[in-house]
């Protein structure tokens, strides 16, 4: 009995050691869209979480103070219809420039999601939505769905900010 317990402990330690020291798989999704607006106009829309259900096809619900270190409760809808909830932590809130959140369990699965606003001209910006995922579970996730979701959200954001909605 003791030998089985020692064997279990030994194999668990080897497994955890291999997990920790194995190079981790990483996936980055990067989407961009040009929006005719000021950085503040875009910032006002992406930080108005209560309005997400009205226009955002990807982050269909969001709740947070958006203060660095606070959780953000997100309901996501992938373009294939899969819905799920995540609760990352706000990492960066740099008004009219960057909003970043992230979370997970390293080295199993960890994600970092960035909204970046870059001034292009006096009347337009480049909106970048970037996410980096690391950990062994990244091998199992079909990342085409979040990428398509980010592109759909970018288009909906552009339409909302520029006033190109059918409402």
Condensed summary:
This protein has helices at residues 2-21, 39-46, 52-55, 144-162, and strands spanning 26-35, 59-63, 73-77, 83-86, 89-94, 98-105, 109-121, 124-134. With 167 residues, the protein is α+β, with helices and mostly antiparallel strands. Helix 2 packs across helix 4.
Q: What distinguishing features does this structure have?
A:
alpha+beta, 5-stranded antiparallel sheet, Alpha-D-Glucose-1,6-Bisphosphate, Chain A, domain 4, elongated, 3-stranded antiparallel sheet, 167 residues, single chain
Describe the overall structure.
The chain is of the alpha+beta class and 167 residues long. It has one domain: 2-Layer Sandwich (Alpha-D-Glucose-1,6-Bisphosphate, Chain A, domain 4), CATH 3.30.530.20. It contains 4 helices and 8 strands; from the N terminus they run αβααβββββββα. The chain has helices spanning 2-21, 39-46, 52-55, 144-162, and strands at 26-35, 59-63, 73-77, 83-86, 89-94, 98-105, 109-121, 124-134. The protein has a 5-stranded antiparallel beta sheet with strand order 1-8-7-6-5, covered by helices on one side. It starts with a helix and ends in a 5-residue tail after the last helix. The mean pLDDT is 90.
- Basic shape: elongated
Q: Stretches where pLDDT falls below 50 for ≥5 residues?
A: none
Span between termini: 70 Å
How many alpha or pi helices? 4
- The spatial strand order of the largest sheet comes to 1-8-7-6-5
CATH architecture: 2-Layer Sandwich
Give the total of domains. Answer: 1
Mean pLDDT: 90
CATH fold group? Alpha-D-Glucose-1,6-Bisphosphate, Chain A, domain 4
- Computed Rg: 19 Å
Instruction: Assign a percent range to the helix content.
Output: 25-40%
> What is the CATH C-level name?
Alpha Beta
**Percent of residues in beta strands:** 35-45%
**What is the β-strand count?**
8
